[in-house]
Amino acid sequence: MGMLGRTLVALLTAVGIAAAVAAAIVVIGFRRQDPRVLRPLVRWQRRSLNPRALETAGRPGDQHSIIRHVGRTSGREYATPIGAVRVAGGFEIMLPYGSEAH
Predict the structure, then answer these.
(1) How far apart are CA 78 and CA 67, in angstroms?
(2) What pLDDT score does 28 carry?
(3) What is the pLDDT, as a whole number, of residue 23?
(4) What pLDDT, on the 0 to 100 scale, is given for residue 62?
(5) Cα separation of 63 and 49, whole Å?
């Protein structure tokens, strides 16, 4: 194996190790409910995933519904995609950000 091949193997190994470390940090952060891990992920979800979910929410066959609400201190209007499942006597709604979100 030449110099270029060894360099490429070393580079790919470093990238693989970095990806494994990043994945471990995310998993440990989730389990410990560490805000340093959760806040960036929630921010990414709100900026990237929520707008896509809001485009199709409420349509037949889509798993998302929308809750529209007004911020209690800001007065700002919000639309939050949620998962709602029909159950006997009503609906069951999953909290997308947990019960401690504000």
Answers:
(1) 8
(2) 93
(3) 93
(4) 82
(5) 14
Q: What does the alpha-carbon distance between residue 47 and residue 41 come to, in Å, rounded to a whole number?
A: 10
**Token pair in block for residue 55:** 């485009």
The dihedral of CA 87, 93, 94, 98: what is its sign? negative
Q: Among candidates 88, 92, 91, 70, which has minimal Cα distance to 79?
A: 70
**Residue 97's pLDDT band (boundaries 50, 70, 90)?**
low
Is residue 69 within 8 Å of 78, Cβ to Cβ?
yes
CA dihedral 25, 28, 30, 31 (to 10 degrees): 180
pTM for the model = 0.50
Q: Which two tokens stand for residue 8?
A: 């490429």
Dig out the tokens for 6 from the structure: 């060894």
Look up residue 79 and give its amino acid.
A
68: amino acid identity, one letter: R
